[in-house]
Design a protein that fits this description.
The chain has 124 residues and is mostly helical. The chain has 5 helices and no strands. 44% of the residues lie in helices and 0% in strands. Helix 2 packs across helix 3.
C-alpha cells in the first residue's frame, strides 16, 4: 500500500497551471472568494469585520505609546515588567498591539510609568 499524501487544495486555471494571486479564472465564484490567513499562504488577508481594524489600530497605538514612554525613561522591557509585577512577554505583547489590556492593568502601567491615565492616553 502506497503512503497517502496529505490533501492540498490548489486552485488551477483552465490550462491546469496554479493560479497566482489576483489572477482571474473560469472556476466558479465560490472558489475565488477571499479566505482568511492560512499558514500556507504568504498574503495576509483583509479582516472580515471592519470594526476589527479599528480595534487593532487602537491596540497598536496604545502599545506604541507605552513603548515610547518606557524607552523615554530608559527602561528595558524586563525592568519595566519587574516594576509592573508581570511577565516580560506580556509587556512585549502590549507594545506590539497583540494584547487587549484590561482597565486594571492599564492603571498599573500608568502607575509604573509615574503618570496619570489621561497622560498615558495622550495621542492614542
Amino acid at each position: 500500500m502506497a503512503a497517502s499524501r496529505p490533501t492540498c487544495w490548489r486552485f488551477t486555471g483552465s490550462d491546469g497551471h496554479p493560479l497566482m494571486p489576483g489572477e482571474a479564472s473560469a472556476s466558479p465564484a465560490y472558489l475565488k472568494a477571499d479566505v482568511t490567513h492560512s499558514p500556507w499562504t504568504y498574503v495576509r488577508q483583509k479582516p472580515i469585520m471592519p470594526f476589527m481594524t479599528a480595534q487593532i489600530d487602537l491596540l497598536t497605538r496604545f502599545g506604541r505609546r507605552v513603548r515610547d514612554l518606557r524607552t523615554a525613561r530608559g527602561q528595558s522591557q524586563e525592568t519595566f515588567a519587574y516594576a509592573f509585577g508581570i511577565d516580560r512577554t506580556y509587556i512585549s505583547g502590549i507594545e506590539r498591539g497583540r494584547r487587549n489590556v484590561g482597565l486594571k492593568n492599564i492603571e498599573v502601567i500608568a502607575k509604573a510609568l509615574g503618570i496619570t491615565l489621561s497622560e498615558l492616553f495622550e495621542g492614542v
